[in-house]
Amino acid sequence: MRIGIDGRAFVGKVTGVGRYISELCKILARILPSAEFFIYCNKPIEIPCELNSWNLRIDNRRFSRGIKPVLWLKSRCGTLTRQDRLDLFWGGASFLPELQASVESILTVHDLTYIEAPKSMSLFHRLSFVTFLKADVLKATWLTVNSVGTKERLSLVTGRTADEVIFPAANSIFTRASSTQIDTVLQKYKINEPYFLAASTWEPRKNLELLIRAFLELKLKGKVNREKLVLVGGHGWKDVRLSVLAKSDESIIPLGYICDSELAALYSGTLAFVYPSVYEGFGIPLLEARSCGAKIITTDIPELHESGGDDATYIRPTQDALVVAMSSHLSDSRAFAPTPHSCHFHGMPTWSEGGETLASLMSRQS
After folding, report:
1. pLDDT at position 206, please?
2. Residue 56 has pLDDT above 70, yes or no
């Protein structure tokens, strides 16, 4: 079996969708050892599996590297797939290339941000989803999604019901850290006081600007004295005001990207992990935080209930609601958080379970 994979999500720092695809690829390599895989992209990337059966196909034509990745997928990727005589193509990032009629396909849709939070996207990105998503959903041989919430929203928008829900998972490194591990990381970043934690790319949908304003209101009211607000994650888009706000008070500590082991320690030691996103298709950081035993404050939408479990504090994403929720955690010590929370489905999802479901679909191809 010869399987193609969209490699666009591996460009640059791999987060979110890229991590989802990467972790499932590692499982596919184990479950389908006799298959040959081809990963396609128009920019240099690192593939998740260093095996002879995994092949990287970079489009080296000069004009290819200069065009938007989604336009490259639609205009050039199909040509490369024909040269490799594929049996099946996995579009893990919401779109499919123009494939030969004989090539079956699996399409994975992660969210409907272009409908639920359109102003958080660039105009080009939003138009790409408006133009291509529904058509690709309808022509895919099999359709998968990352949450029940996404499945329901997508069905309403396209009229097609997903064949499988393949939940994201938390990597095994995200477990409760020891007090020594926590202190080592806190000393490295000069975090000497109890802290709230947020982790996400700096872009409007994540609502970090609102979080900072809520934290500063708590400080203005005298409810926050020595506590800090720690921000993990890199700059994204439409983040100029956020960047200015993050520098406005010494109690706000932006760390940028950090390694997973350090993030696990920060999850383990925080007063609460705060994730006030306007909308998510699932919310992997909530799984990571729960696996480290962190208390959680997050937005009250179905998709985040799936990742946040039964014991999170769910709020409307407003400044007043954040102030109230964060206030309730200010009396906590910076010791260990409670035991990891339960989830409304049986146990935490695992990458192995997701990989097995995806491999089962791939094995059905004729």
Report:
1. 87
2. yes
Q: Which two tokens stand for residue 352?
A: 């192995």
Token representation of residue 28: 């596919």
CATH class held by domain 179-327:
alpha beta
Find out if CATH 3.40.50.300 is the number for domain 2-169+350-364. no
**Segment 357-364 mean pLDDT:** 94
Q: Which of 363, 294, 364, 358 is nearest to 107 (CA)?
A: 358
Q: What angle do CA 59, 61, 63 make, to 5 degrees?
A: 115
Cα gap 59→274, rounded to integer Å: 40
Given a cut of 50, whether residue 340 has pLDDT beyond it is no
Enumerate the CATH 3.40.50.2000 domain ranges in the chain, comma separated: 2-169+350-364, 179-327
Distance of alpha carbon 278 from the chain centroid: 14
Report the C-alpha gap between 363 and 366 in whole angstroms.
8
Chain mean position to CA 259:
16
Q: Can you tell me the mean pLDDT for 192-210? A: 88
How far apart CA 104 and CA 44 sit, in angstroms, is 26
